[in-house]
Amino acid sequence: MKLKKLLFILLTASFLVSACQENPDDDIVVNKGGNLSDQIETASGKDMEGAGAETFVKNEVFTAADQNVEIRMDISYTPELHGSLSVYRGVPRSISVDEVKLWSKALFKDSTPYEPTTVKTKSELSEEILNFKQMISNREKLIEEYGSEQDADNYIEYINGLISALEQDYASAPESYNRKETDWTFHPYSYYDLYSTFNQDFDQYANEDLSQELQIEADVDGHHGYIWAINRDASDYTMHCLNSGFYDEMDIRNESPGTSLSPEDADKIVYPLIAELGFEGWLLDMCFADSGEGASDSPPEEDKEYSKFTYSFTPALDGLPVFYTILGTIKSDDAYAARYYYENMQVNLVNGKVIGVSWYSPLEITETVSENVKLLSMDEIYERFKSQLQSEYTMTKLLGEDDAARLNSAYVKVTDMTLYMMRIREKGTDNFLLVPAYGFKGDVYIEDDQLYFPDIDLTMINAIDGSTINVELGY
Predict the structure, then answer these.
(1) Distance (Å, rounded) from C-alpha 331 to C-alpha 393?
(2) Which pTM value belongs to this model?
(3) CA distance 181 to 150
């Protein structure tokens, strides 16, 4: 199941990138947010999304850029009556201390929030040193796990370095540690890193103190809860997020393994909570549920009960969902790249208890750039999408060189067309525009391997100027 999910994510990323490159033969360009304002026209009543609410239907089959890739269109799209749509400008926004306090009140209830333990006692260090030594005691097993002697020895060397650092800390370590109530202050990353002295010698930690963090802990119903807030505004990437969970999450999962809820009962827990946290009015992006031991990966059915639920929500603008997708990384050498995750909040419910809440990438709307904008017709949008498929979609683009050489054919069944508010980076600034854009989804079938990947994001097309938007890079 984990492998299937990994393939799903990788394929999704591959499609989003491959479907959004410039097309040398057709008038399809990637919009870098440079002069979109100059292209905006005001809509008349009949131009508005949903005006007339006529269903747009496309059923056709054609080959893509590669004769081995077949496209099967099965679109039936009825515009919703959204009325006037606008273009907005926004900027990334830091997580505030007040928001951390709000989460603490909602999630920790009356429990006292403490600072995390930033020192280890002698007994804790002794136990940790012993655990590390046991981890590297069987070199042959490590070689088997890591696949080579070199990789196993590199891991052993790293752990030995940690052991040496901990042994040096042991002499000055206290016998006990008194917990301190939080003073609600953000600190550099290394303030909370118990291994900062050791890790600072590694290149990947060189810029970590560009992040400011506020971490708190509390005892909640006999469990060790935490809330972490991170703010980072740096040239390599921007990160603003708020996360909560439990260090002893597995104990919660094992407490009441038979506790299951209907989707309706789960909603009664989750929706009041997100309202209390300040997300009332957000739209449900997806909900997965699971009644077994695996990860939650299926939409819930109303007449069934589940032990695990994962809810994902996005903001709404002009009644449209703001587009969200999972990004593998936000680091990029591309000068136009957003380097900022898409805004999203998530709630995880296990055995009737909320075990985790996260909020990534808040965006503050600073300006309405244009009101009542005119959108391209459905036919124009569809032709842009079709041209993109016919010019870009090859077996190599879909699957990579190795699998493309091994497999004979694939087909994409396009089933979904949705109007979103899409966030794109403005050229040469730290600002973002939020513009109406059509997203197309479909199911991918690889017949040779009998693989099936449902609900893949295929292409995002700016509804104002018809340009394709590179979802991975954010422009």
Answers:
(1) 26
(2) 0.78
(3) 45
